[in-house]
Every structure is written in structure tokens, then in C-alpha cells.
Write a structure and sequence with these properties.
- This is OsmC family protein.
- The protein has helices at about 40-65, 105-120, 120-125, and strands at about 5-10, 15-20, 25, 70-80, 90-100, 130-140.
- It has about 140 residues and is of the alpha+beta class.
- The chain has two domains: about 1-30, no CATH class; about 40-140, 2-Layer Sandwich (GMP Synthetase, Chain A, domain 3), CATH 3.30.300.
- Strand 2 and strand 3 form a beta hairpin.
- The protein is elongated, with a radius of gyration of 18 Å.
- The chain starts with 6 loop residues before the first strand and ends with a strand.
């Protein structure tokens, strides 16, 4: 399978990129002397892609396991190298689950399947970064 995108310069430091789904995203970066941003940073968007890829896997696996009484978020932190070209060399993915009766074994299995088997973005990150994952269960009274 091949994916193709088109990215157009729309002025200043802004670019708009399409996606095979037909959706678009605006990207930009910090401009000296300005605090205004119109889009997402390309490097930070890589971290969002990692979270999105793994999150889709986790939710899909939990759905197949009939787990549905939870909320879920991910926090991803990437450390850039200090020399150019700057890239993420250390990445930490924290999986946070909230619920009254969380199944630790099912959640651990779902995250493990994503991290070790299904998430292609995770595998790509491993080619250039050390990736650490943590699972946090937060009991919430129903």
C-alpha cells in the first residue's frame, strides 16, 4: 500500500497538507518576533501521530475484549537532539485510563499489542529513538 499527500505553501511559514482521507492540516513554526501560530508544528505532529496510531489500536482491541467502561488519554513527550538536524531521540508514551472497574490485565494486553505488534508509527519511531511506555490506571468512583 502506498500513501500520497500534497503539501502547499500558503504564505509566511504556513503549509497546508492533505491526507488520503481528504482532510487537511495546517503546519507552521515559530517566527521570530511573533507569538501567533496558525498551525501545528511538524515535529510535534509526529508525536500526535504516534499517539493516534497507538490509541486507535488500544481502543480497537479493548472493544473486541468487550471493555467499554473507561476513558482514556495519552501524553507523549519527545526529547530533541541538541544538534541539527534535530530529531526525537527519546520518546515517552504515557497511557492514562480512568474508570470505576478497570481491567488491568485487559488494558495491559491491549497496550502491549499496540506497542509490540500493531502500531506502525511506533515501529518507525523505534528506528531513530528510544521509546518508553507507561500505563497508569486511575480509579474513578462511579
Amino acid at each position: 500500500m502506498t500513501n500520497k499527500i500534497t503539501t502547499n505553501w500558503i504564505g509566511g511559514m504556513q503549509f497546508e497538507s492533505d491526507n488520503p482521507s481528504g482532510k487537511t492540516v495546517v503546519m507552521d513554526t515559530d517566527v521570530e518576533g511573533s507569538t501567533e501560530r496558525f498551525g501545528l508544528s511538524p515535529k510535534a505532529m509526529m508525536l500526535s501521530s504516534l499517539a493516534g496510531c497507538s490509541g486507535l489500536d488500544v481502543v480497537s482491541v479493548l472493544e473486541k475484549m468487550k471493555v467499554d467502561d473507561y476513558t482514556f488519554k495519552m501524553e507523549v513527550e519527545g526529547e530533541l537532539t541538541s544538534e541539527h538536524p534535530k530529531y526525537y531521540h527519546k520518546v515517552t508514551v504515557d497511557y492514562h485510563f480512568y474508570g470505576a472497574n478497570l481491567s488491568e490485565s485487559k488494558i495491559n494486553k491491549a497496550v502491549s499489542l499496540s506497542v509490540d505488534k500493531y502500531c506502525g508509527v511506533m515501529e518507525m519511531f523505534r528506528k531513530f529513538a528510544t521509546v518508553k511506555t507507561n500505563i497508569h490506571l486511575h480509579a474513578v468512583n462511579s
